[in-house]
Each structure stands twice: as structure tokens, then as C-alpha cells.
Amino acid sequence: MKKLNIKQLIKLCHKIAREKGFWDSERNxxxxxxxxxxxxxxxxxxxxxxxxxxxxxxxxxxxxxLFDLSGGLKIDVEKEIMKKMNKNKNRPYKxxxxx
Length: 99
Description:
By secondary structure, the protein is mostly helical. The chain has helices at about 5-20, 30-50, 50-70, 75-90. It is built from four helices and no strands.
């Protein structure tokens, strides 16, 4: 498979999810967000077990679910990331928190 940019990945992840029937009815955004959290929890478990292969797969699953959600909600992720990075760039060191 050729390398894809973020917009192409979002489009492909969402297309595959639609083809597999996950968008046949209205999706519950809260449930979708918790499924993303579940993928991160699975990544944490793989990390704890020092299972790098499974850790990498769970991180990929997290992005696939995020990209599917973003595609379904028509979020321009590239634009939002750049907007947020610019906001973060202008924040104080450690966002002004003492850690």
C-alpha cells in the first residue's frame, strides 16, 4: 500500500468502516470515544507486558478509530491539529503549571 496523508487515511478508514456496516445507522459518539479509550487501554496492557508488536497494533487501532470518527463527523483533522499546535506554541512553559 502506498503512503497516504492524513486526509487520505481518514477517508480510507471511514470508507472501510462504512463498508463493514459500522455506519448503517446513526453512531453514538460517546460510545465511539470510549472504544478509542479502550484501544489505548489495550495498548497500555501490551506495554505493561512488554509486548511491542501488540502495543504497536493497539496504537494503530486507536488511530483507525479516531480517523473513522473524524471522517464520519467531517472533522478536518489536519486543520485542527495545526490550529491546536499554534495555540500550544504560544502557551507558557509547561502551560504555566509547576510540575
